[in-house]
Amino acid sequence: MRKDLRSLLNNERAPVTQRLMIGRCGRGRARERAVARASPAPRVLPLEEAYRFHEFHSPALEDADFENKPMILLVGQYSTGKTTFIRYLLEQDFPGMRIGPEPTTDSFIAVMYGETEGSTPGNALVVDPKKPFRKLSRFGNAFLNRFMCSQLPNQVLKSISIIDSPGILSGEKQRISRGYDFCQVLQWFAERVDRIILLFDAHKLDISDEFSEAIKAFRGQDDKIRVVLNKADQVDTQQLMRVYGALMWSLGKVINTPEVLRVYIGSFWAQPLQNTDNRRLFEAEAQDLFRDIQSLPQKAAVRKLNDLIKRARLAKVHAYIISYLKKEMPSMFGKENKKRELIFRLPEIYVQLQREYQISAGDFPEVKAMQEQLENYDFTKFHSLKPKLIEAVDNMLTNKISSLMSLISQEEMNMPTQMVQGGAFDGTTEGPFNQGYGEGAKEGADEEEWVVAKDKPVYDELFYTLSPINGKISGVNAKKEMVTSKLPNSVLGKIWKLADCDCDGMLDEEEFALAKHLIKIKLDGYELPNSLPPHLVPPSHRKSLPKAD
């Protein structure tokens, strides 16, 4: 089976994750063509070519689509901080960067790693076989004149690439004046990036018509979308609650998913916070977002495989639709009338195909867009259904892909963890500004004095009211005091195990003080440690207790 998987990927020696991320297809052929050529049965590409999938949906995949680093697409209305967000992550300026309160970024800018700092204009960029942008040439000069690649030697960009998009405006004039289909370009990027970050300004929560259309262009890519509520330090806590609620209400009208989108709240720029009431919240949210971005290189191989599976499923559905239209066409007369009838009946055809082939409705392309595209085609030139092509794709999805997934998981366990490093990601990983440093169970780690000692006089008064015998209180008496915290028994049981340093089933005054300190940590909203840190061990027990790992 391992040989079959290796032959499927057309490279006998490279690890699976490398083959998916740094795949070489020999003669500059599309990756799918290499897969098809390497195995006995055809795979996805022949099916796509037979039914003109590339004309209706997405161009054929190339080497660069598998070789490129994970990409992040930033989308938002003007002056929501998209370019500033990139500057914040990189901690340096990049070529073509413009920041201001007015609409400044009027181009798509791909920020990528390069040994020397510079920029490449769009027309030159789409002929570079090493970059994953060749298929963007179909959007014409109006788009290419507003597309560029900024390259600079930055540590962050060694692991990821970032796509900055023009600020979205409201009104029909701005939409027409672009000169290209903005939503189609966004859809092209959305199919290829690993993360889509929608940025909102705390003072600009309205979703314009163009922004709404842009978000709808991400249909089918919901798992990639993250939302950032930026500039949240410019409102107080009460206003922030209202802003968050209004944002979720606005998003609910344009994103039709049962799940609630993950929203990261903060102020993503290297300037002092205007309102520090929610500093702890902003820090926690920033760390969550950083962790999500940092994990992208590690998950890149699985993501590429997941996108390939989605593409194969759509190619199958497309083949069923096209072959059905071909079958229904008359051989002689009334072709135009029949074509119009079939286009009008397309929603019914979808339902019929769902029942006939047991396909989920979510796998079908959008009806309206498909109807508009079909207007330009002669149905009599479509191909009839070729079962062998369908069987080949089914075999790949059923057998090859499942085996490949398990092989990827095994190799990821044996490979070192890949994380994004540099820039803002290094600022909070070590030292006193690491999240949670000096807080909760980590408080007092750098102090010589036992951190519990400052509150010990208060705890001692409670201790002596619990009838200690020979300087210790029983578990029964300790429980009477500990349950007053109203914490669940599972938590109190963990606190008891941490505090009973000598495991004798009783607490002396230092152990009792430690138990009360741990209760306070939990009530303050921090997590308890799995083992007692050395700095929390009571002074009288430090010789007898081994140091925690």
UniProtKB/TrEMBL annotation:
Keyword Cytoplasm (UniProt): no
Ranges of residues in domain Dynamin-type G: 66-297
InterPro entries for this protein: DUF5600, Dynamin_N, EF-hand-dom_pair, EF_Hand_1_Ca_BS, EF_hand_dom, EH_dom, EHD_N, G_DYNAMIN_dom
SUPFAM superfamilies for the chain: EF-hand, P-loop containing nucleoside triphosphate hydrolases
One Pfam family per UniProt: Dynamin_N
EF-hand domain location: 487-522
Subcellular location: Cell membrane; Endosome membrane
Species whose genome carries this gene: Rattus norvegicus (Rat)
Membrane topology: Peripheral membrane protein
PANTHER family with a match to the protein in the record: EH DOMAIN, EH DOMAIN-CONTAINING PROTEIN 4
A GO MF term: protein-macromolecule adaptor activity
Gene name, Swiss-Prot/TrEMBL: Ehd4
Protein's name in the database: EH-domain containing 4
The UniProt record lists the keyword Aminoacyl-tRNA synthetase: no
Primary localization: membrane
GO BP terms, alphabetized: cell migration involved in sprouting angiogenesis; cellular response to growth factor stimulus; cilium assembly; endocytic recycling; endocytosis; pinocytosis; protein homooligomerization; protein localization to plasma membrane
Segments forming domain EH: 455-543
Gene3D superfamilies in the record: 1.10.268.20, EF-hand (1.10.238.10), P-loop containing nucleotide triphosphate hydrolases (3.40.50.300)
Key words of the record: ATP-binding, Calcium, Cell membrane, Endosome, Membrane, Metal-binding, Nucleotide-binding, Phosphoprotein
Any one GO CC term of the record: endocytic vesicle
Domain of life, source organism: Eukaryota
